[in-house]
Design goal:
Largest sheet: 4 strands, parallel
Shape: globular
Radius of gyration: 18 Å
Distance between the termini: 62 Å
Mean pLDDT: 91
Strand content: 5-15%
Helix content: 25-40%
Length: 149
């Protein structure tokens, strides 16, 4: 009879680090890079940084877009921005590209950690995401009032 290797949720795997809660994970991830504010993100975009909007479609349809931002759904981000990837976006020109990810500031932080593991060492996120951009009075393309027409 084979030994059951499944563990319950309450059990830990020997020699594995203790599990983290999401707040602790975010704190650790964010400690590894400098996050930037809306005005810094706008200035970075003016000097060639790639702004990447990873919000899902319903939020973009509701709130609008940052002009010039590359829209990439979160579940496609690594494939689209890996400069060596077969499905990369044309904007993914190299590992030295400065990438600023925006969402609401939570998923974007985790996305940055993933991009940095791919070698995009200048990836960061926008503190407060799209909402902070809009609150700072930076340009926003309003949503289409007649979607689907």
């Amino acid at each position: 009879m084979s030994e059951d290797r499944n563990t319950s949720r309450d059990e830990t795997v020997p020699d594995a680090p203790p599990p983290l809660g999401i707040d602790e994970l975010l704190e650790r991830v964010r400690a590894g890079y400098d996050r930037i504010g809306a005005s810094e993100a706008a200035a970075a975009a003016e000097t060639g940084a790639l702004l990447v909007d990873i919000r899902y479609a319903a939020l973009r349809d509701r709130d609008g877009l940052i002009p010039g931002a590359l829209v990439v759904e979160r579940n496609e981000l690594e494939w689209r921005l890996d400069p060596r990837g077969s499905h990369r976006a044309a904007e993914a020109v190299g590992h030295d590209l400065q990438v600023v990810v925006c969402n609401e500031g939570y998923a974007s932080s985790l996305a940055v950690a993933s991009l940095r593991q791919l070698g995009l060492h200048r990836a960061t996120d926008l503190i407060g995401g799209f909402q902070a951009w809009r609150a700072a009075g930076l340009p926003v393309t309003p949503p289409d009032p007649t979607p689907g027409i």
